[in-house]
Amino acid sequence: MADPAQRHFRTLFLSDLHLGTRGCQAHLLLDFLRYHDAETIFLVGDIVDGWRLKRSWYWPQTHNDVVQKLLRKGRKGARIIYLPGNHDEFLRNYIGTHFGGVEVFEDYVHETAAGDKYLIIHGDQFDIVVRHAKWLAFFGDWAYVTAIQFNTGLNFIRRKLGFSYWSLSAWAKMKVKNAVNFIGAFQETLTNEAQRRGVDGVVCGHIHHACDDDSGGVRYINTGDWVESCTAVVEHQDGTFEIIEWSQIADTQSGTEGDADEAQIEKSGSRVAA
Ligand SMILES: [Mn+2]
Hints:
Layout: E1 7-14, H1 26-35, E2 36-43, H2 50-55, H3 61-75, E3 79-82, E4 98-99, E5 102-104, E6 108-111, E7 117-120, H4 127-131, H5 133-139, H6 141-160, H7 168-174, H8 176-196, E8 201-204, E9 211-213, E10 219-222, E11 231-235, E12 241-245, H9 246-254, H10 257-269
Parallel strand pairs: 1-2, 2-3, 3-5, 7-8, 8-10
Antiparallel strand pairs: 1-11, 4-5, 6-7, 9-10, 11-12
Bound molecules: manganese (II) ion.
The site of manganese (II) ion has 9 residues, from loops.
């Protein structure tokens, strides 16, 4: 018998789970996955934190359970599409292939039930553009495309040399005054990219800040993360989108002070750079 609380969507978008780090809210995520199903599941990058795991191995049972739960959804018929981010960019070596029923792409154009096209991409590809937006605008499209290639190449070299990913958003968050500017600049850059590719919108992650905004000409949707905000994006059967803030819903469902306190301690315990 179906669980009455079970919700079934056309599409589910998740990003920035950061499995393999203490910051990942795996318990809340497992709870979320228990109640939410979809025909297609997009894993929009930074799902497994390869950078952190390389430094120190952290892989508790709950993180394993998350992977198993996702793979089980795949076996039961869901299409699972994985778009690597900067923290799991080791998977960029596998673009165009699939493993365990999971397909790997650099980015993907998804068509909604309403017939709108959305670019699905993690977003770290544009870090350098976000940082140097004004200069790049001055030099035009050539500089823009070159900058993205440079960004990808630079991080490839850093990885080969054993350095960690230089995180633009972590850098911006350190300079708190710039954080709001940074979020805005990221949104603007991704919105421009969607326009450049002639799609109706973009679904991305990377900056750990959920958002749904169409004021920029195309729709900008950010899935948020499962480190701090515990948010996901769903597409309903009619093609409309919704941000689900699971930490809030889970808190009201459980209704116990203890759970909320525990989640709060976990939250403040370990932050992960986007
Ligand atoms: Mn990221």
